[in-house]
Amino acid sequence: AAEEGFDIEDVEGAIEAAGHGPLPVLAVVGRPNVGKSTLVNRIIGRREAVVEDKPGVTRDRVTYEAEWAGRRFKVVDTGGWEQDVLGIDASVAAQAEYAIEAADAVVFVVDAKVGATDTDEAVVRLLRKAGKPVVLCANKVDGPSGEADAAYLWNLGLGEPHPVSALHGRGTGDMLDAVLEALPEAPAQSFGTAIGGPRRIALIGRPNVGKSSLLNKVAGEERVVVNELAGTTRDPVDELIELGGVTWKFVDTAGIRKRVHLQQGADYYASLRTAAAVEKAEVAVILIDAAENISVQDQRIVTMAVEAGRAVVLAFNKWDTLDEERRYYLEREIETELGQVAWAPRVNVSARTGRHMEKLVPAIETALAGWETRVPTGRLNAFLGELVSAHPHPVRGGKQPRILFGTQAGTKPPRFVLFASGFIEAGYRRFIERRLREEFGFEGTPIHISVRVRE
Ligand code: GDP
Ligand code: GDP
């Protein structure tokens, strides 16, 4: 590294920064209007408004990456969903329930000016049951005079209330220090404890693509479709199912089975549920209704899984209903609409007839293998050396930036750091990704490539 002009500490730092596995998850929960979205904006350090002024406006995005004091984590914002037909308590409880389930730690936001309400108490009960570490945020303490309001919240029995003004930033640093103490280094509930345990699958897809039908089929039993409100009962949300002689854990099957009839906020609710399931899983099996046009909603779900860095399998369901013409157009659509996951293994199934169910497990295994692939540094650099000499970066401004060396900093998904002598253009980065995939496989997994440029 030194002879290439890189400081050894820079190199090590870059590798460490890129090398993290799945990040721990922080959920921010609380009643509407207590300031959850404002706080999330603060935590992720973004100026652009996540806060919407219009109530009931739905957002697709519910998870964000954040960093505090050099540690990275994910934040799940539950602020995008207003009161709906369920009534306020059930609404808040339902969204909190999913977020808490997927989280390693929770920030519970209370409006200190208002004090604890019955709805807040309902969330406290959920938090107790979940047993996850909680940081109590007494928000809207904009100045010293509000501190007394915050102190009242000791009554909630969740420990020290942290007086914060999400709007002005007051107290957020201290609160984030407490968050880091509460948050494990790695997402313990979903990864650390499960080594050697069953692999975790999230079966996701937009409503009516056939998720519960598929689950029933693979589990080999007719399940009861529970027509009840989410959040009113706490049945086990993960289910162990044996497939191909191996036991798998299907995460958040309660979310699949429950039918919650929502008017407002249904999209957001579904997004939150999907995001939570994806966070808990290692591999996402994304179900798509092959009989219908691939929709923006399908693409959003794909993006969610890819951005979360999960292994991905695409399952095109309802294959029994397809005629030849639809099959033809589907292929074209897959090329144009699902190009971002051209690397994902694909199965064409029918939850109704059972067609190709036996291909599901091999596809999942392929994707997990890709997700865990590690390329030895020697092999990677031999490959990079050949690639760079056969296909050099285009000359720019009289200079030719070169990839000097690289290393795989992490897996799950594979993360690479490349060290270069100058700025590497996006097109060349994509070319490198393509060639890496051709050479080493990585079927079914997103890969991350970061480039460090010599000063
Ligand atoms: P959410 O529904 O819990 O996500 O709440 P929002 O983040 O949308 O905030 C609701 C309202 O409270 C907005 O008008 C915010 O500007 C306001 N708000 C949020 N945090 C603070 C704060 O620390 N102090 C004050 N005074 N207002 C706040
Ligand atoms: P979910 O909302 O994704 O859980 O979807 P469901 O499993 O409830 O299925 C929605 C509808 O699609 C139901 O009427 C199912 O019977 C139907 N369906 C599911 N899978 C198939 C399939 O493979 N073929 C056909 N023809 N219909 C299916």
Q: Which stretches are low in confidence, meaning pLDDT under 50 for 5 or more residues running? A: 47-59, 189-194, 222-235, 259-264
Strand order of the largest sheet: 2-3-1-4-5-6
Q: What's the Cα radius of gyration?
A: 24 Å
Oligomeric form of this entry?
A: single chain
Explain what you see.
By secondary structure, this protein is of the alpha/beta class. 35% of the residues lie in helices and 20% in strands. The protein has 14 helices and 15 strands. The strands form 3 sheets. A 6-stranded mixed beta sheet has the order 2-3-1-4-5-6, sandwiched between helices. β2 and β3 form a beta hairpin. α3 runs parallel beside α4. It is globular. The structure holds guanosine-5'-diphosphate (2 copies).
